[in-house]
């Protein structure tokens, strides 16, 4: 093969590799949406992973793939206190925003309108955020306190752990343990579970009638 032919082959190979990489990058971007949060919101976690902020600035945009996502954020802003004649820092506790990305390209997360100190303090007590797409259409989202979210994760972990274990026999084929073995396993797990968070979680999830039935059961005991 001549030097010229080798050069052409190498050039063609480089072009094909670059095209494949570019195509992959475009495909990934096409399936992702860029989320921008307003200046008064601080993003701490995305899908249980910490968000890295710059030394002098906070991160305001992230890419989200299609599917369900969970954000941990808080509100923070400064307003003039007319009564005290000074600026006041107003901030909320961290809370959880659950959303679903479908075919959107751009998403914008912001607070409801906060124009003064009084409205800021009302927001801290009862946060309201708005999620818009690139067409300014409002999307459905779900808000949850951080404590409730953590309780839910604990419950999910316990339920997963309490599923019947699989035992690998000497023949390397999986066999399900007997009901007696499963019950013994479950009892061991239950003994190690912190029941207080579990009780709090299910109490919050219970209906009014269920709570009344439970209180009657407690009084009988």
UniProtKB/TrEMBL annotation:
Signal as UniProt keyword: yes
Keywords: Signal
Pfam annotation, one family: DUF2057
UniProt xrefs under InterPro entries: UPF0319
Signal peptide: 1-32
Highest taxon of the lineage: Bacteria
Similarity comment: family membership: Belongs to the UPF0319 family.
Full protein name: DUF2057 domain-containing protein
Gene source species: Colwellia psychrerythraea (strain 34H / ATCC BAA-681) (Vibrio psychroerythus)
